[in-house]
Amino acid sequence: xxxxxxxxxxxxxxxxxxxxxxxxxxxxxxxxxxxxxxxxxxxxxxxxxxxxxxxxxxxxxxxxxxxxxxxxxxxxxxxxxxxxxxxxxxxxxxxxxxxxxxxxxx
Length: 106
What we know:
With 106 residues, the protein is mostly helical. It has six helices and no strands. Helix 1 runs antiparallel to helix 2.
């Protein structure tokens, strides 16, 4: 079944909203610029408490997606081998931290 009701703001519109809000524009000015109702703008601001969401970045210490793929492809028998850690440019300890044994609950 189709979703009924008013459509919200697109990610581009939300980015524009936060940029304009940070610039000090009023809600009515922002609503006019985005061609949306004032309540739509207020609803987005209210959900976040008026604070723009943080931009998320992957930690430089996190294992890369390619590294995780290499570990899963090489299998558990090879996860201690030095060539794998050299190929991924990480230490053996980081590799061990990624390959912890699964915990089973009874």
